[in-house]
Amino acid sequence: MVGTRGVPARYGGFETAVEEVGSRLAERGHRVVVYCRPGDGERPAEYRRMELVHKGAMHRRSLETLSHTGLSVAHLLRHRTDVALVFNAANSPYLPLIRAARIPVATHVDGLEWKRDKWKGTGRRYYRLAESAAVRWSDGLIADAQGIADYYREEFHAPTRLIAYGAPRVAEESDLLAGLGLQPQGYHLLVARFEPENHVHTIVDGYRRSGARLPLIVVGSAPYADAYTARVHDLADDRVRFLGGVWDQRLLDQLYANAFSYLHGHSVGGTNPSLLRAIGAGAPTLAYDVVFNREVLGDSGAYFTTEADVAGVVEAAEADPAGHPARRAATRARAAGYDWDDVADKYELLCRDLADGVQVRARRPLTAQRVGSAPRLTGKAVES
């Protein structure tokens, strides 16, 4: 498993998937190797039966992922494996090296990275081209949301294996909340990296405009985002509390499980682990209105787009405290469709198909067109 920050999972969806899937495959008797970026602490050789290989990275936003994956792939080529799983289409330039070594490789393409505000100009064009390279050079593509699968089918005529993430079942405990001065069902919650496409600014500003009585608890931060973080803080009033990153998983789970509502602003990343954790905790969810979030929440959620919408859905939730138990039950019911054991089954089947030489999909040359200011890359691939 190549291309993530590695395990233990402390960052995002890729890392969570690697830990949850990799540990299950290891428990089933498979040898699982995970490439990790070194942290500030120790570099264990094993975690939850997975073998860990630690490789460095250049600490620049535009080069961090590629530099780490390059070192990881160099090691992988010297230590052969039956199958490689590459996470993030941005790492697609290394796919020809893996395939040249006759190692079957599948790429987890994630969300639409080129839509993220942090990528401008050259970075955005690179991500668009990286998508087409992943289609051309992967033996298989993995999408974690139907919206992403639809995008690759419509944009590239390329089929994917649809494998969503799992939703953890979060225990209903609350003993750690007192340390933060919080009461169960006594606050609204937002958990996100501080990036514009996660709409932290929209939620904080919309909440400030509302007549909400319960405080808004904000968990999260982001590297390389000082200006945006300052903007978000400037939008807040004294009802908003910023906790920064919360690395105590038990405390984070209790924040989810006891929130009166969870506000989710992610818009481009496919199926998001924060949203899945919220439904696993039964947190009634108010979400940004995009196809990925509706796919997870269905009718159990309420949706917003603007700051005025945020104010409206927060006030509506507070105006109906009697409906809170029903909203919790409806949200938790959505988690039943997102089971990590089922996810591991699908990854195991994909890996067996690749290792056994089963043709996962066929390639045809891609052509580039222009739509607006961004290249539109089209092609055709069909499942055998």
Automatic annotation (TrEMBL):
Signal peptide boundaries: none
Matching InterPro entries: Glyco_trans_4-like_N
Metal-binding in keyword set: no
One Gene Ontology molecular-function label: glycosyltransferase activity
Superkingdom of this protein's organism: Bacteria
GO BP terms: lipopolysaccharide biosynthetic process
Keyword annotations from UniProtKB, A to Z: Glycosyltransferase, Transferase
Gene3D superfamilies: Glycogen Phosphorylase B (3.40.50.2000)
Domain Glycosyltransferase subfamily 4-like N-terminal: 12-161
Entry-linked PANTHER family: GLYCOSYLTRANSFERASE WBBK-RELATED
Protein name, as recorded: Glycosyltransferase involved in cell wall biosynthesis
Organism: Leifsonia soli
